[in-house]
C-alpha cells in the first residue's frame, strides 16, 4: 500500500532514501567513544582472530559485489589474503579451507540457498563462519559461528539498495576490527577511517540531495540498448553493481569492466553515442589510479562514447571529458563505494520507470532465492 511505501511510489525509492539512516544504524553502538571498535557480538575470540591466515567471502548477486569491495579493505588493513567467491561456485571446486580460514557469508535475506550450502561446506572443513546479514534469526546466521547484523531494516524491493550499503559498512567494520585486533601497521589509518565512517551517513544524505540531474539524464537514455560501466580498484565492483542494477531493473544490456581491461577487449564495444558510466577514484591518495582512468575516459570519448562521469567534488581533471558529470563527496578511496553506488541506484530506478518496468518486482527475479 501507499502508506507502507512511506509516500514514495516504490519501495525501492523509499529504501534508497533510507540509506543514510541504515548506514548510521549499522554503525550504532559499534564504535566506542575512544574511537575504537567494539564488536563483542562477533563471538570469535581475538586470539582466534589472530590465528586466521585466510579470509574467504561467499555471497550471491549484490552481496557478492559487497564482498568484492570488502577484499580491498580486508587485505589493505589486515594483510590477510582474502578471496571472494560466488557462493554457487564455491563448494564445487574443492576450496582449500581449514581451521585457520575465516569464511564470511554475506546475505541480506539470510536464506539464499547457494550461500547456505557454501557456509555448510566451510564448516564441514572446520572453518569459522561469520555471517553478515540483515534478517534477524534467519537460517544463515543461525548456522554460522557468529553474525554481524546490518540493521538496515526490512528491504522489500527485489533490487537491493540499503542492504548493499550496510553490507559494505559491516565489511569495513570487520576489516577494521581484524586490523585493530591484529595490530597492523595501519593503526593510525584505521583510527582515521573509523572517523570517516562515522560521518559517512551525512555524505550519503548529501548525494541523495543532488540526484535530480541523474534522473533527468536517465530519462534521456530510455531507448538505448546498452550501457557500459567502468571503474578501477574499488570502483570496479561499483561498476559491476551499477550494471547489475540496470539489468535487474531496466532489462538493458549492461556490463561493468575494470577500466584497465578496456584495451584487452571491451573497447571494441565503444561506438558513437554508447553511454559509458565511469566511476573515478579520488585524485588524492592513490593518484596514479585517477590519472589512468582520466586517460581511459579520453580514449573512449575519442571513439564516440557518451561519457557519464562520477567524480569527487573538486576533481577538475575530468571536466573536459565528461558529457555528463555526477559529483560525489570526497571520501577516502576505500570508502568511495558508499557514495558512488547511490547515483547508480537512482539511475537504474529511473530508467526502469521510464521504460515502464515494474520497479519493485522485476520480471523473473525473486527477492530471496531459496533453491540452488
Ligand atoms: C537475489 C536478489 C538479489 C540479491 C541476491 C542475494 O538474487 O534478487 O538482489 O542480491 O539474491 O541475496 P541475499 O539475500 O543472499 O543477499
TrEMBL record:
<keyword id="KW-0963">Cytoplasm</keyword>
<keyword id="KW-0032">Aminotransferase</keyword>
<feature type="domain" description="SIS">
    <location>
        <begin position="217"/>
        <end position="362"/>
    </location>
</feature>
<keyword id="KW-0808">Transferase</keyword>
<protein>
    <recommendedName>
        <fullName>Glutamine--fructose-6-phosphate aminotransferase [isomerizing]</fullName>
        <ecNumber>2.6.1.16</ecNumber>
    </recommendedName>
</protein>
<dbReference type="GO" id="GO:0008483">
    <property type="term" value="F:transaminase activity"/>
</dbReference>
<comment type="subunit">
    <text>Homodimer.</text>
</comment>
<feature type="domain" description="SIS">
    <location>
        <begin position="45"/>
        <end position="184"/>
    </location>
</feature>
<keyword id="KW-0315">Glutamine amidotransferase</keyword>
<feature type="active site" description="For Fru-6P isomerization activity">
    <location>
        <position position="367"/>
    </location>
</feature>
<comment type="function">
    <text>Catalyzes the first step in hexosamine metabolism, converting fructose-6P into glucosamine-6P using glutamine as a nitrogen source.</text>
</comment>
<keyword id="KW-0677">Repeat</keyword>
